[in-house]
Write a structure and sequence with these properties.
alpha+beta, disordered N terminus
């Protein structure tokens, strides 16, 4: 590994299960400022460009907004998600079935660490249908989270070396 690369850190498969709860997460340390990472994860127009795992996105990643996405792991299904943000620090995407049968919340958290950024992405599913609907989804989701944080890290590190690409 060259000296300008920062190793990706991953928790052991972040799959925690309870009676009606399931959690998957990925994390990495990025050699870029938090503002660069934030710009990447909130730029809906470019999600399909940088190997995010999302194949289609419509809507704006803004506080109180709604987006519709399709992903590699979701096949042709479109997911409608509500977006909440604490700008520069955290963002959540929330979806669910009626009557609380299944709720999914994906949380993106950025933590500055001495000129670098720790990115953590966690998705938690809760509700009575959690175990029934997520059995086969688990391994694909864990790999997708690992791939996502790696892709954000690579893009952020490239863009911080070449700020004109981002329009700065």
């Amino acid at each position: 590994m060259s000296t300008d690369q920062v190793p990706t850190t991953r928790r052991p498969p972040g799959q925690r299960q309870g009676k009606s709860r399931h959690c998957v997460e990925g994390e990495t340390l990025i050699n870029a400022r938090s503002s660069t990472v934030w710009d990447i994860i909130t730029d809906a127009r470019n999600y399909t460009v940088w190997e995010s795992g999302i194949t289609h996105i419509r809507g704006e990643l803004r506080n109180g907004g709604t987006i519709r996405i399709r992903s590699h792991t979701g096949g042709n299904r479109t997911f409608r998600l509500r977006v909440q943000q604490v700008p520069g620090e955290a963002m959540t995407w929330t979806q669910g079935l009626p009557l609380g049968l299944l709720t999914g919340v994906r949380t993106f958290t950025l933590e500055p660490r001495g000129g670098m950024t720790h990115l953590r992405v966690k998705e938690e599913f809760t509700g009575p249908l959690c175990g029934l609907l997520l059995c086969e989804f688990v391994s694909d989701t864990q790999q997708a989270f690992n791939d996502y944080v790696d892709a954000v890290r690579k893009r952020a590190e490239i863009l911080s070396r070449h700020p004109k690409i981002m329009g700065h």
